[in-house]
From TrEMBL:
Gene Ontology cellular-component annotations: microtubule
Name recorded for this polypeptide: Tubulin epsilon chain-like
Gene: LOC105360787
PANTHER family in the cross-refs: TUBULIN
Molecular function, one GO term: GTP binding
Amino acid sequence: MSQFITVQVGQCGNQIGSAFWPLTLHEYGVQTTSGGVNLLKMYKNYSKNSKELSDAFSSFFYVPDSQQHSFAFKNVSDLEQAKVKARAVLVDMEDSVVSRFSQGPLSNLFDRTCTITNYPGSGNNWAVGYYTHGLEYYNRLEETIRLMVEKCDCLHGFLLMHSVGGGTGSGLGTATLKLLDDAYPHVDRFVSSVYPASTQDVITAPYNVLLATRELIEHATCVFPSENRALQDMCNMYRNGKRENADQAKYNASCLPFQDMNSIIVNMLMHLTSGSRFSGSLNTDMNELATNLVAYPNLHYIFSSISPVALTAPYIITTNNKKYYDELFTNAWSRNNQLIKVDPLQSRSLIIGAAHIYRGDASLTDIRRNIERFQSKAKFTAWSKEAMKVGLCSVPPVGHPASLLCLMNSTAISYLFKDIIHQFDKLYKKKAHIHHYLQVDQFENEDFIGSREKILSVFDQYIRIERQTPINISRLELN
Ligand SMILES: Nc1nc2c(ncn2[C@@H]2O[C@H](COP(=O)(O)OP(=O)(O)OP(=O)(O)O)[C@@H](O)[C@H]2O)c(=O)[nH]1
Ligand SMILES: [Mg+2]
């Protein structure tokens, strides 16, 4: 099984991480409680197939000082004794979120040498994150990542988690991404990027988003964007399985501002990597996904939607009802289940590449019927209609009999790029706040201009694809 190194940067990246690791452990049957972790359940779940679990576990975890890359679980009495560590690098230029890890049930999961923090952050300024901290911490980041890479015998990819609205995740996060591209050009770089809600909580977010997006276009293998507005809508819709009124939704949002939203992102990442971690009858590895979904180098922003939407507390459904499986597909294509608010199934959008990752038991007939339904619903480019990647992973997600992740590389994502430019122009036209950026060593106005041009050129590429009409060749001319 292939291995991943996660790199979580900034407040958002580390808060996603704090939801990611308990669920990852949970997927292997390890429960985290306030008192610590409980491996007992894992033994019960996997006693029949401990070899598979052991292989799968090494995708995200390792045992320090061990020559073995897989685990002999029968000898493990608890996580602490096994000294199992996460293949994770934790970075924040402000230490409050990362320091919380050292108190909770995950306290021994992270190697302390893989934590890079400072004080007091990057002040919501991409330039401070990218240039000031990026240069100051370059050697430390490079060394920490190198040591983590050396602990892998089958490194498959990096999984970067961050937001693009602030300073650290956005600036230092993309500086780290560039470092990964320079140092490990042949290792895939998958990025989960959180885009701010349109009612922005960071006034300089339009600048940070634009500057970070350029780097993501230039250095990522695939970006899986999520939008806080879409995540909020999903939470409001699915919390407790029913719609809430506006007051209730506001109250819930003030209690748990990001917990449920992050849990949606984490579930998406679990499904995304499931084929690389567990076996299945039609398994899809992450590198196959990239090959199938990315037709042109810069066009690698991948739309995602999931079904069911599993919020923080997993619940158990026991159903053998076939309709349940069909509904999984229908819901995954619904606008309510999208991690980003664009519309890939509208009549103008064209799909350049698509994939469905199914977890759980299903018959190939059921899958084929649903894929045909999808092909009749969506519009594709002239070359992409038959190229539907399907992944079947036999291990279902925690608390559900099955799940579906729908991934699309669609021209509809051009709306995101259009909005980034629009939001940037509004602020930049007035030259508001730009002095904070221009006073940072190495930052130049050209960073703004070049980023805008890059994003505009990607936008144009999508529009050109939309306008391409199939060429009819009536006959072949041999001479
Ligand atoms: N979905 C989600 N969004 C978050 C979370 N934390 C912050 N955000 C959003 O991320 C943006 C701000 O980025 P942060 O991650 O807080 O900033 P940072 O990377 O720590 O950078 P600085 O604090 O400026 O150094 C805002 O749009 C927030 O709404 C989180 O846990 N989940
Ligand atoms: Mg911060």
